[in-house]
Recover the amino acids of this structure.
């Protein structure tokens, strides 16, 4: 267990490095903005420096300040474990934003937009894959989605839309288009590394159904449907556990399955819609 948690922290740290490099070496100097709270922090830094005449306030510091109230809200509304690792991700990102120098590796704004989006997408993707987030927008979107029962993507679209409009209004209209390019690349990379779908269906083939049911229920509050199954090649009697989870619970489920039955076969598929009860509050 201790080894797994250390590995998880190292992955979160690596994700923070990717995010910091994406911003400081590609996006900031090109006035191209990332998604979510990172993009908001970039915009506020630009406004303070270019329009308010207040230089010296870094993107990392503003990002850290913005995430403080969100972390408190996430602690009570999303889950303590998820929020703790998200806070660790934000803290590491802030640290690396201060360490990595802000400079432009290329004068080509398209290269900056694409490579910044790729690196940012990798950073967010591997962080999500290991049961954390980069904070800010992920936590707020999850809470609003549960309150309003709307897809989480709507809130991502709304906040990122504001960033795109402000980027075009404050600077050149082209900057809004390049920001849109960055957001598209980031989304595609996150989709490739992890998954952007809010709900997933897990189908678990196992010979240890009772133990696995008990372990899953100890980890999360989700309904499980258990069906009889039989291996066509081995003719061995097994069970199939079917359950619907959110993408943020995927890491925890994978960890439980590996502990109880490492030989279980699990198929994770996208869930496009649900009719009936699905618990939204932990």
């Amino acid at each position: 267990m201790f080894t797994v948690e250390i590995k998880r922290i190292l992955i979160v740290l690596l994700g923070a490095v990717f995010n910091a490099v994406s911003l400081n070496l590609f996006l900031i100097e090109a006035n191209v903005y990332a998604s979510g709270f990172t993009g908001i922090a970039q915009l506020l830094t630009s406004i303070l420096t270019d329009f308010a005449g207040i230089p010296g306030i870094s993107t990392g510091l503003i990002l850290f300040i913005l995430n403080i109230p969100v972390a408190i809200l996430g602690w009570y509304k999303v889950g303590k474990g998820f929020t703790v690792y998200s806070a660790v991700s934000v803290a590491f990102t802030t640290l690396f934003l201060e360490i990595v120098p802000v400079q432009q590796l290329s004068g080509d704004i398209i290269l900056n937009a694409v490579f910044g989006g790729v690196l940012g997408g990798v950073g967010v993707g591997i962080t999500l894959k290991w049961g954390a987030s980069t904070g800010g927008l992920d936590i707020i979107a999850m809470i609003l989605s549960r309150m309003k029962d709307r897809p989480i993507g709507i809130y991502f679209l709304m906040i990122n839309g504001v960033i795109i409009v402000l980027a075009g209004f404050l600077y050149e209209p082209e900057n809004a288009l390049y920001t849109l390019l960055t957001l598209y690349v980031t989304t595609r990379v996150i989709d490739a590394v992890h998954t952007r779908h809010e709900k997933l269906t897990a189908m678990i083939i196992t010979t240890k159904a009772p133990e696995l049911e008990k372990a899953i229920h100890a980890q999360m509050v989700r309904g499980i449907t258990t069906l009889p199954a039989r291996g066509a090649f081995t003719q061995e009697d097994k069970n199939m556990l079917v359950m619907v989870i959110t993408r943020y619970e995927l890491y925890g489920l994978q960890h439980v399955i590996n502990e109880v039955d490492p030989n279980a076969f699990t198929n994770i598929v996208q869930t496009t819609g649900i009719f009936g009860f699905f618990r939204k509050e932990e």
Summary: The beta strands are 199-206, 225-230, 237-246, 265-270. The CA atoms of residues 3 and 112 lie 37 Å apart. The first helix runs from residue 2 to 27. The chain has a mean pLDDT of 81.
